């Protein structure tokens, strides 16, 4: 039996910080992060080049109460530092699993992680290393969704994969409406017209302008990541 051929050579995987919590209230659930890394390892063995943008909600949520009334830019920088912590944890787990991971931060913290330099990131990807992008875009007022769109465009990713708790985009909330059905494909214009809120407006506009398709899928569904890169009917594809 011949090996499965990936439909996409290079992908950008957007993971929320909340995804790392598993069933915990905050922080990083060890079993959850190990299982996620196993899914990533499976597609790298198929020859897929993987970059990851990680959020910080699992850490920042714990201090967000103290950020009420705080200057927005200051709070955003705190959130960016939370993503660096998650990126280090993710890369460490990847390295222990036999992958070679590199963390690149949009904020300079030279003793801890290397700075984001696009040619270096491209070199790492071509060498088969997993690149974890930390600290969002390095600017306040921009989400990690926007960082995912930006980095995806910069590295020439074929697809931005938005990992969520739901296995795609539905006509209604499937937990509340049993008749809700999953969209297999949607155009950017359809998603806007239906106000589906797949990504924040800045990230979504960037993907649309760069004709960078987005695939929404569940990171908690075993084997879903592999099925996405093989081009199977998994999740929802948003295309230009």
Describe this structure in words.
α2 runs antiparallel to α3 (72-96) and α5 packs parallel to α7. β1, α1 (30-44) and β2 form a beta-alpha-beta unit. The protein is globular and about 50 Å long. It contains eight helices and nine strands. It has a nine-stranded mixed beta sheet, with helices on both faces. The chain has helices spanning 30-44, 57-64, 72-96, 118-126, 144-154, 188-193, 201-209, 224-229; strands spanning 10-15, 49-54, 101-105, 114-115, 130-134, 159-164, 185-187, 214-218, 236-239. The protein has a single domain, classed as Carbamate kinase (3-Layer(aba) Sandwich), CATH 3.40.1160.10. By secondary structure, it is an alpha/beta fold. The longest helix has 25 residues, at 72-96.
Radius of gyration: 17 Å
Gross morphology is globular
| Helicity level | 25-40%
Q: What is the straight-line distance between the termini?
A: 35 Å
Instruction: State the fourth-level CATH superfamily.
Output: Acetylglutamate kinase-like
Structural class: alpha/beta
The order of strands across the largest sheet is: 4-3-5-2-1-6-8-9-7
Number of helices: 8
As an assembly, this protein is: single chain
Mean pLDDT over all positions? 93
Write down the secondary-structure element order. Answer: EHEHHEEHEHEEHHEHE
Q: What low-confidence regions span 5 or more consecutive residues with pLDDT below 50? A: none
């Amino acid at each position: 039996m011949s090996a499965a051929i990936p439909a996409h050579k290079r992908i950008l995987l957007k993971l929320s910080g909340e995804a790392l919590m598993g069933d915990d209230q905050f922080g990083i659930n060890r079993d959850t992060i190990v299982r996620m890394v196993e899914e990533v390892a499976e597609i790298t063995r198929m020859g897929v080049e993987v970059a990851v943008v990680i959020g910080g909600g699992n850490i920042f949520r714990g201090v967000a109460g103290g950020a009420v009334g705080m200057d927005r830019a200051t709070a955003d920088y705190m959130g960016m530092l939370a993503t660096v912590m998650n990126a280090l944890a993710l890369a460490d787990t990847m390295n222990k699993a036999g992958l070679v991971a590199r963390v690149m931060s949009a904020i300079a913290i030279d003793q801890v992680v290397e700075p984001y330099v696009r040619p270096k990131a491209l070199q790492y990807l071509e060498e088969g290393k997993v690149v974890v992008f930390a600290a969002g875009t390095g600017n306040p007022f921009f989400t990690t969704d926007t960082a995912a769109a930006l980095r995806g465009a910069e590295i020439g990713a074929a697809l931005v994969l938005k990992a969520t708790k739901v296995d795609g985009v539905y006509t209604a909330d499937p937990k509340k409406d049993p008749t809700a059905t999953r969209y297999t494909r949607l155009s950017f214009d359809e998603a806007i017209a239906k106000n589906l809120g797949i990504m924040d407006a800045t990230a979504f506009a960037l993907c649309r302008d760069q004709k960078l398709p987005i695939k929404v899928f569940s990171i908690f569904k075993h084997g879903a990541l592999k099925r996405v890169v093989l081009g199977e009917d998994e999740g929802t594809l948003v295309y230009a």
